[in-house]
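Example 3.
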Amino acid sequence: MKLIEKFKEIYRYRHMLYTLVKQDIRGRYKGSFLGFLWTLLNPLLMLLVYSVVFQFVFRADIEHYPIYLFICLMPWNCFQNSIFMGTACISNNAGILKKVYFPREILPLASIISNIINYLFSAVIIFIALLISGVGISWTALFLPVILLIQSIFTFGIVLILSAVNVYVRDVQYMMNPIMMIWMYATPILYSISMVPEQYRDLYMLNPMTRIMVAYQSILYDKTLPSMSGLGIVALEAVIVLVIGYLIFSKLQRRFAEEV
Amino acid sequence: MAKKKKTSDKDVVISVKNVTKEFTYYEDKAYFLKERLTNLKRNKKQKHVVLENVSCDITRGETVALIGVNGSGKSTLLKLLSKIIYPEKGEIVIKGKVSSLLELGAGFNTDFTGRENIYFNASIYGLGRKDVDKVIDKIIEFSELGDFIDSPVRTYSSGMYMRLAFSIAVNVEADILLIDEILAVGDQHFQDKCLKKMQELKEKKKTMVFVSHSMAQVKSFCDRAIWIYQGKMRMDGPTEEVTAAYLQEQG
């Protein structure tokens, strides 16, 4: 089968994938004095600002609001950065695309993996914050890798589509800024799904990120099991998006070297 | 096209069947949506056939030269063989690991040092850090870059760039080597060294396809030559015959 061949090929190029991810993580804060520490400092400072703002300036209805916000904002940042980086990854690498063969899927895959690794570092801060604030950690947190995996499959599918189309129509890269902003507000991150009027809930659920965010909230904030049917549905959606993305990417990648 | 010797299908490592490649030229290429829409009518496309109905089989251990005047489609054929571009029609089947040296350079990241680029470039050919550690001294020595290996590649001259690219490409243990006319960049000393290295690889039964304008190099090194003229195969056979016919026409 063709798909199995593709997996084997990507496995053969794992060293390249590894080098790309390493280059990205190292290069991100290259030249800065604190270097890699920024990966941890960034979310930490963000959490501090939220805590001050929502404790003293703006009172939210949700208890432990900074933590609540943080639990979803970090994976959302991972999603958003993967999309921004991923969309441009093919057009930014014209140099190697024109010179050497490698499975083109490696580039979008690398941008997603490096953002996941970054998220995992910030997840350490989330857990520390959960302990300190008194929200606590329950065994349901063990579902985190499952949710993250579903999110990553979904992200990969979208990035495959966007990165390939961006080679032909560069507008995609710039369109993603406003789109991601709207998408963020259309997802229960800053607020809870229960605040959404009943009649719009079905509409909300069409957005796969809604179920993903609700799942993060239930395992970390509510400390309850995530809705299994919800996870099942979003996993299915993610796989469908990935398959569509793969088909589009395979079709468009044939002319990458000529078009970039 | 007469094949040099009868070989069983097993030995064919590069098989090119009725390959046609067209390039589309835009008079003013639209990268953005607005340009696409406003230029809808003006967006003139021109099709240019670069290769037409090309077929050839190359067997293991063969050294093949592609010859022809500029713009005849040699480099395009090499790019097709390395799977960087795809043919519009026809089929190309390659068996084995390919290492290619196209135009100048091999896709180096110019902000990184030569050493870092060796690791990155070799990883594209499937070599891990440990595999590279084993051959890196050989690569650096062959490139004759000395202390420059730890300087960013953007500071390199074109000769140094080519030396590094060549040194990596011949040391990654590929089965098939595709080399565009990059040898011309090096000085006589390095060219001789490259040819010697290629001779070594030839003895190791590696397959090589090689574009060159130097008939002396072609004659001394290749068993077989393919003459491409205006996108079509004009002649395919033993080097002596093909180069003689080619030189005669060039006058």
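The helical segments of chain B are 33-38, 74-81, 114-124, 129-143, 158-171, 188-203, 215-221, 239-250. The interface with chain A takes residues 23-24, 31-34, 36, 79, 82-86, 98, 100, 102-103, 105-109, 119-124, 126-129 of chain B (CB under 8 Å).
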